[in-house]
Amino acid sequence: MTSSDTVRQQVLVLYLDTSALDSPVVGWARYDGTGAGRPTTGDADEPPYETGVAALRDGWRLFQAAQLIPPYPGAEHETSFLKHEFFFERLVTV
Fold first, then answer.
1. pTM, whole model, 2 decimals?
2. How far is CA 90 from CA 17, 35, 46, 60, 93, in A?
3. How far is CA 55 from the centre of its chain?
């Protein structure tokens, strides 16, 4: 990297079907610190990756996974937030 290179962060949030990184993606959001694009939630019909492992294979770095919290007794079948949230990042030179 030369002194004229600038590094920016891209963030990918994947919500998986289960806590396993190889389970299917059920929701996602992307954020681009390079300014090259303005992705928004719901801007595509298909997820950017089929699984969290696929994102890792493409060079994304996992930096946060959701805590595994059991459902409150009696609320096992209630709808709520997506529990299995994984944050990935990639550094891009602009």
1. 0.79
2. 23, 14, 20, 5, 10
3. 8
Rg of the Cα atoms in the chain = 16
The rounded distance, in Å, linking the Cα atoms of 92 and 50 is 22
- Least Cα distance to 85 among 10, 23, 11, 16 occurs for 16
The Cα 32–Cα 12 span in angstroms is: 9
42-82 pLDDT, tens digit each = 678 899 999 999 999 999 999 988 777 776 787 777 776 77
Q: How far apart are CA 10 and CA 73, in angstroms?
A: 38
**What are the backbone dihedrals phi and psi of residue 29, each rounded to the nearest 5 degrees, phi first?**
-150, 145
45: amino acid identity, one letter = D
